[in-house]
Amino acid sequence: MRTTTVFMFPGQGAQYEGMGAELYDKYPECIDMANQILGYDVRKLTSGELEKSLHFTRYTQPALFVVNSLYYRDIVNEMGVPDIVLGHSLGEYNALLAANVIDFKNGLMLVKRRAELMSGAPGGGMSVVMQLDIDTILNIINVDRKQGTVGIANINSEMQIVLSGDVAVLAKLKTKLEDSGAIVMELQVSGAFHSTYMEPVAQEYNKHVKKTDFKNQNIPVISNVTAEPYLDADISEVLIRQLYSTVNWSGSIKYLLDKYEKIDFIEVGPGRVLSGLLRYIKKEWKSRAVTDGIGVG
To answer: From start to end of the chain, where are the E strands?
Structure first.
């Protein structure tokens, strides 16, 4: 039985000082181009030598796109091109790069503008909710919806959900969610990503996206928004929607588990955030498969 190779690219939250340091000297042309586009030294940013903080969205996203790209070049030299790619939020741009939909230059220019707009969006916050199922979370959210806008930003797994929206409502929900058995942590981010707060950002970002020449995929890219493969005709529209839509990471992985019998998932980038989530999602999927009477090898 043939193994389907899937590359996964991490998004914001996977960054750390020193990431990718071993790769900069191997791919100097990428670093030179990145420095020219961004207007600062990526190596110095990721090493903590600049006053600019790696943990500010404006700088995090471009740096992570660059480092993910270096890791991809390195692993392709060793393993060859994968069968399928996907990325978590920002990481989806690396997936599109891997599928030759965008090149490195255009991809970084898109990410730079995306990061600038997202970091400048006023108001809102995000919280991660663990150990509570999504239906219970939604029931609690809906009770308080009239007092402010809060929604599901990320479905990382069935028991790890990220909320995004009004800060005051998030604070009120924290107590209710904890009373229901959840572990709730506020995320240190500059805005309410993947929520209605990002709709004005999406409108402005659309002007930049329209200027980009997107090629057809040479390998399938799984979309965060639909948890299914991108259609070539819809790439720009879905990228815009991604800013204010839920990142259905759990659904994306389960789509692949349902479709392919033997899969080798490989995380391409700094850290092992997605590999950790993958273990939880596989357990959830196997549990569901047993319940549904589906054989799981």
So the answer is: 4-9, 84-87, 125-130, 150-157, 160-165, 183-187, 221-222, 263-267
Please give the structure tokens belonging to residue 97.
């790069």
Q: Is the pTM of this model over 0.90?
A: yes
CA distance 68 to 110: 15
CA pseudo-torsion sign 179, 182, 188, 190: negative
Return d(Cα 220, Cα 30) in angstroms, integer: 24
Helix (H, G, I), strand (E, B) or coil at 233: helix
From the centroid of its chain, how far is CA 59? 16
Q: Using DSSP, state whether 189 is helix, strand or coil.
A: coil
Active-site residues, by number, are: 89, 194
Q: Which three-class secondary structure state does DSSP give residue 18?
A: coil
At the second CATH level, the architecture of 4-120+196-292 is 3-Layer(aba) Sandwich (3.40)
Q: Do the Cβ atoms of 227 and 252 come closer than 8 Å?
A: yes
Q: What is the pLDDT of residues 237-284, one digit of tens each?
A: 999 999 999 999 999 999 999 999 999 999 999 999 999 999 999 999
CB 68 within 8 A of CB 10: yes
| Fold designation for 125-187 | Alpha-Beta Plaits (3.30.70)
DSSP code, position 229: B
φ, ψ of residue 267 in degrees (nearest 5): -80, 130
